[in-house]
Amino acid sequence: MKKRYLRAILFFLGIVGIIAYILFPSEKKMQCIEKKLNFYPYVDSTSGVENVEVAPPGFKCLLSKEGGHCGMGFSFNETENWNLMDFIIIDMQSSDDFKELIVQILTIDPHTRKTDRSTMKPIIKEVKLEQNKKRYSLPMEDFYTPDYWFEQQKTRDTHNSKRFSAVAGIEMYSGWKNKTDKPLELKIEGICLEGVSNTRFVILVIYIGILIATAISVRIKT
Fold first, then answer.
1. Is 22 helix (H, G, I), strand (E, B) or coil?
2. What's the CA gap between 126 and 120, in Å, rounded?
3. pLDDT tens column, 180-202
4. Same domain for 39 and 130?
5. Higher-pLDDT residue of 27, 40
6. H/E element holding 88?
7. Same domain assignment for residues 137 and 215
8. Largest Cα–Cα distance in the chain?
9. Least packed by Cβ within 10 Å: which of 23, 95, 108, 119?
């Protein structure tokens, strides 16, 4: 009889723990990275780029051919793990003629493990810029590795393109939809990462584990 009551109590406590996990607000965590950056100009010399000026944290450039790319990049002193991050939040100001920006995350590929920029795996997202808009929240799940990278590196796409365990830096440059002979200017006011803390889940697992261990212990003794 006591054994049955104990099982009911443990079951009730388990349900209470799950309900508390669902109802308790998720804890968001922010990680801002603008103070960790080493800036450098990004120039695609084959695409008709002129007059690139980098003034950290921003740049100004002029395209002479459509489809050109110009912008800036910033590398980290040490690689960072962004696997638990859900969004990249960028506060920036752009000129009226700046229509499209490409945000490119550089990661160290686990297969090559080379730290040279030419071998790093790019994970990109095209961002449509809007007038008077200053904050852009980019979901990490929207980023992708372009097919040309796999062709250049002579490696296969094993559907593990979005690994953020070894992020080495970010590059931000003009996209394909910008007009020529129009000055493109961008100024970064802040870059932060947002994710949901997994502390609640860890506590729930430990809590349920204790209940299961107690139930097993009582069963063995009886």
1. helix
2. 19
3. 878 889 998 889 999 875 666 66
4. yes
5. 40
6. strand 85-94
7. no
8. 85
9. 23
CA angle 110, 191, 62 (to 5 degrees): 95
Nearest to 101 by CA among 188, 32, 33: 188
Does the pLDDT at position 55 exceed 50? yes
Global pTM exceeds 0.85: no
Given phi > 0 = left and psi -120 to 50 = alpha, else beta, which region is 169? left
Q: CA 49, CA 66: separation in Å to the nearest integer?
A: 10
Structure token pair of residue 207: 């809590």
Give the CATH number of the domain where residue 142 resides: 2.60.120.430
Backbone angles phi, psi at 58, to 5 degrees: -170, 180
Give the residue numbers spanning the domain of 143: 28-196
- CB within 8 Å of 133: residues ≥ 6 apart: none
Question: In one letter, which amino acid is 187?
Answer: K
Query: Which residues, at least 6 apart from 152, have a Cβ–Cβ distance to it below 8 Å?
Result: none
Q: 1 falls in which pLDDT band (50, 70, 90)?
A: very low
* pLDDT per position as a tens digit, 76-113: 888 899 988 999 999 999 998 899 999 999 998 666 56
